[in-house]
Design a protein that fits this description.
- This protein is an all-alpha fold.
- It contains 5 helices and no strands.
- The chain is flat, with a radius of gyration of 24 Å.
Amino acid sequence: MRTTLTDEKEWPNKLTSVQLAYNATVCPDTAKFSPYHILFGRHMNLPINTLLFKETNQQDRPKIQFYVNELTNRLQLIWKFCNNNLSDSKRQMAQQYNLKTRQRNSNVYHMLEI
């Protein structure tokens, strides 16, 4: 934000746009889902989507119980994927960390000879 907005007085007006962009952005390293998708189980409807796609009629909308069941299943699946992706990311970070550290000689008896 500092590089695009030189006047700090403009920041409060632009923070909502920045937050919208952040919540819609997929995190490629860890979760591989956007924060919005993890929380609500679907992709965010951006303002451009409202302009390009017409909204469906009330009769075309799914029944509430069906929607709730589908949403629950999707959220459980997303959380499972996120958990697996975070575990993989944690493992990769541990491997990179271990490459940078040197292995220590743990032979204590060698050092304690009397």
